[in-house]
Amino acid sequence: MDAISTKGLTRDYGGGKGIFDLTFSVGEGETFGFLGPNGAGKTTTIRHLMGFLRPRAGSCAIGGRDCWRERENIQRDLGYIPGEISFFNDMTGAEFLRFLAGYRGQKPVRQKELLDRFELDPRGGIKKMSKGMKQKLGIVAAFQHDPAVLILDEPTSGLDPLMQNRFVELLREETARGKTILLSSHMFEEVERTCQRVGIIRAGRLAAVDSVEALRKRHLRSYTVTLDTPERAESFARDFGGQQDGCRVTVTARQSLEEIFLHYYGGGEHD
Ligand SMILES: Nc1ncnc2c1ncn2[C@@H]1O[C@H](COP(=O)(O)OP(=O)(O)OP(=O)(O)O)[C@@H](O)[C@H]1O
């Protein structure tokens, strides 16, 4: 059984905005990247999966449970990091984590370990926390009850590179422990380091679902240049960080996400 699935999921906000006929699934134990530029429809999709929005057409399910009809159970069980985190500002971080554990009725078995890992002291008032601290609190809140399914909407926004790396490590460990994860992101590198498959969304439509391996190949593009002499090739290779073989130099360039998107939207003529 698919752990997460959408079938023809549609919400039309008018003017071409929204999500349209989205069908995809995430297998049990899979970490699936949901990759798309700003405004593509990632958060709208996730809000349907969490049961915050009722589908106008189509449906979605988690663990075989309809996300709208069983939204209370889904919201209680899942680990969820919203795209824009807003907490009850009059609580301390510790109070919020306690409140959440009570609401879920599940022990926060990983709370201490996660607070240590992300170097967060939760005793202060949420109102005074920096954006990064709030993001860390959101991470602890999502993972503290050790959920089997996690829905993460741009979870590293606001984290510094060190903490982003720690988060990537956490995701890899969770994948190894058999968790099912949907990770929305607009950063290819984050998805590349954590996911097995990726769905690419743009303008509310799923442009492609592909393995990370295939996507990586598109991301790293090689060019071979032939110079007049091996000496010139050597100097060229030095300047551009290429691999020299006689008069030939192979240079590998990273493509931007936009260029990768173009490949998928353009139907392959950019090869
Ligand atoms: N309640 C709403 N009413 C009208 N339009 C909306 C509403 N919510 C979202 N939209 C529009 O739907 C589109 C998709 O938005 P969404 O937040 O799902 O994108 P996203 O992929 O999560 O983007 P980002 O990476 O910027 O968070 C956007 O054009 C947005 O302006």
From TrEMBL:
It comes from the Bacteria. GO terms for molecular function: ATP binding. InterPro entries: AAA+_ATPase (IPR003593), ABC_transporter-like_ATP-bd (IPR003439), ABC_transporter-like_CS (IPR017871), ABC_Transporter_VariousFunc (IPR051782), P-loop_NTPase (IPR027417). Pfam families: ABC_tran. Residues 4-228 form the ABC transporter domain. The keyword Nucleotide-binding applies. The keyword Transport applies. PANTHER family: ABC TRANSPORTER ATP-BINDING PROTEIN ALBC-RELATED. This is ABC transporter ATP-binding protein. It comes from Gemmiger gallinarum.
